[in-house]
Amino acid sequence: MTLTQMFDPTAVAIVGASTTEGKIGYEAMANAAEFDSPVYPVNPSSKGTLFGEAFVPSVTDIDDDVDLALCCVPGPVTPEVIEECGEAGVGAVVVYAGGFAEAGEDGERLQQSVVEVAEEYDISVLGPNTSGFVVPRTNLLCSFASGAEKLPAGNTAVVAQSGGVAHALAFQSRRQGRGVSVMVGLGNRANVGFTDVIEYFDGDEDTGAIVIHVEGTDDGRALLEACRESETPVIAYKVGQSDVGEFAESHTGALTGDHELYLAGFAQYGIPTVDATDDLLDAAAALADSPEPDGPNVGVVTAQAGPGIIITDRIQRAGGRLPELTAETRDRVDELLSGVTYTGNPVDTGRPMPAFGDVVTAVAEDDNVDIVLVYELFEQAMGFPADALDGLAERVDKPILFATDGIEEDMADDKATLTDAGVPMFETPERAGDAAAVLARYAKIQGRAGAALEASR
């Protein structure tokens, strides 16, 4: 079984394609038609064309090598369709229909039939009970949801147990101006689950971080192992802290398990966790666009004291540390800020100033600092210290995060300059502080997990 045929296919078939707007077979074809390679509508009851492509009665009648089929038929017909796909040499299938393991014993038997046929033909099955996936970079829109074509390409892989959460995260990422390398809704995980997708996108050069939304899994150890073995940072959002077990099981057939055990397992294996979708995407942006931190020590530079206090509080409450700056750094900062406000950590300049970028550089070069967080309300006359920040993270080999606020149109060009320079940006002091805290926790638990792994060998 290979996921290359799913996420990088040469051609796609839409089985159950429909000319009726609103039906999954129509909406899936509408999205899939955006793909840069051949797309074939399949329906034995339809004639003519759909989105410029001629209908064919079966995937076995397609005179082309089709890697991926989008299955838009009702659940009971699904095993038969997958068998036809196997006979046609299709290596991957997305099953949208529900009524499988999440629906009781009859559904479990139906899903087992799907698994058995897929195993016979070595087919990767995403779903059942999923809204599919999207790879914006290649216009591979294997979802029936509207708006999929507007998702921008980014460097975060979104892997969610729920298709609804997967889409919600992808749309949030668009609003944040970030985008995704892929958005995947796993659904019932018939034979494609977390481990498979994590391993595949760990090897994807366009993915800088992987975020996972977890309701529950029957093989938690395999999930943890896949996260730990991934060279690409993985951040987890485990839901189900309260008693949602029955609801979750009826959703994707998930057994939520003990929430605290999941969190302890993630921490043991070096995977940071968050408890909100915004936090998940912010942590991904911080990890994907930055060098990995060596430790939990955060140096804060703020142009306004109030937001700096909020940031400092968030970082320390979440387990990060604000170390004392070295004597050399304090001397450098004192010289730059002669007589100006607070020059400890955080460093408060009082307002943006010509030397602001030099202050950030001094803190970034401090040996006691592992992570740098900068906050500056936008002032049009001063702009952002783009020249100082461009390439600084790579030079000091530390994450450097930047948070700001102001009139959007006034600071658009300056924000774009920092974004183009690869500086992760945040819109509130709370989100910036939380992202820095995730980096701090990541450094700590990665260190502990690595030490434990070495000790066990």
TrEMBL record:
One of its GO terms (molecular function) is ATP binding. Pfam families: CoA_binding_2, Succ_CoA_lig. Keywords: ATP-binding, Ligase, Nucleotide-binding. Signal peptide: none annotated. InterPro entries: Acyl-CoA_Synth/Transferase, CoA-bd, NAD(P)-bd_dom_sf, Succ_CoA_lig_flav_dom, Succinyl-CoA_synth-like. It catalyses: acetate + ATP + CoA = acetyl-CoA + ADP + phosphate. The keyword Ligase applies. The keyword Nucleotidyltransferase does not apply. Residues 6-100 form the CoA-binding domain. Gene3D superfamilies: NAD(P)-binding Rossmann-like Domain, Succinyl-CoA synthetase domains. This is acetate--CoA ligase (ADP-forming). It comes from Halorubrum tropicale.
